[in-house]
Amino acid sequence: MSVVPFDQREGFIWMNGKLVDWQDAKLHVLSHGLHYASCVFEGERAYDGQIFKSIEHSERFKRSANLLDFEIPYSVEELDAAKQLVVAKNNHSNCYVRPVAWRGSEMMAVAAQNSTINTAIAVWPWPSMFDVNQKMKGIKLDIAEYRRPDPRTAPSGAKAAGLYMICTISKHRAERRGYADAMMLDWQGRVAECTGANIFFSIDGALHTPIADCFLDGITRQTIIELARRRGIEVVERRIMPEELAGFQECFICGTGAEVTPVSEIGPHKFTPGALSRGFVEDYSAEVKPKQKAA
Question: FRET label pair with 222: which of 44, 146, 252, 289, CA 20 to 30 Å apart?
């Protein structure tokens, strides 16, 4: 089945404060964000027409821009309203939501303090990747060659476009080798995350996950920790070395795109998705559904 390129789709995109026809949402080839990666974005999902944790995503969107030394010229409330408008205008109930902000074309050099900050929001259909039974088979992960950088060398707390360059390279390599994704190590060789998702392991009923200090502390990751604590499951955030993988019983990744997806293999290490992983798949699915307001 052919896929319609993203620049040729139909619908509406919110751009710099107004709705424009999808195919008219363009930027110049000499935009600073394209050449110097002065660009931040968010990945969100709407379920039954409501964006999950929209406020948290908008707040992080603005923080990411601040870390790249620019200010998104819209408040959290304005961004939330614009996102819901785009979801409704495109008549989508379950979809992916992509806010993005970048420096424009007024300056073309490393320094670009006087460039206009552009902001856009697009949405498109994106169903859940798997049903529960498919998910429980688990996916296979490669181990990436590139590592997440030392936080003293990059703004690792930002969801910034430039930080995903090594993720794209690593995912391409993994897919060529027959894997679904790749697990990345940090600059000191410790377990970090996947190319677009955080990672959790279980042993003896407790969850273990790497400390998010050189990669994004995902909103889905935070949700999983909250769900675990509600269920009385211990969550241990710590340094995890690759040689420890053989001792874990279950593993799953989580993110806006992946939601909660169990893992059956990381390189030479095998895992058996079980009751704990299934519980988080189901709990997360219930959590993201819009709550009915009391009459």
Answer: 146
